[in-house]
Amino acid sequence: MPRVTLIIPGHPPQPYRFELDRRQVSFGRGPENDIVVDSPSVSTRHAEMLRVGNSYELRDLHSTNGTKHNGERHLSIPLASGTVAQLGDVDFEFQLSDDELAALSGILAPVRVALPVATPNEPAVPNEPAAKPVPVALLVEEEAEEDDYAPAAGMSFAKKLLILLLIVLAVLLGMSLRHQKDTGKTLLDEWTKKPAPAKTSGETEKTAPMEEAAPKNP
Question: Taking 90 as the threshold, does the pLDDT of residue 107 lie above it?
Answer without folding.
Answer: no
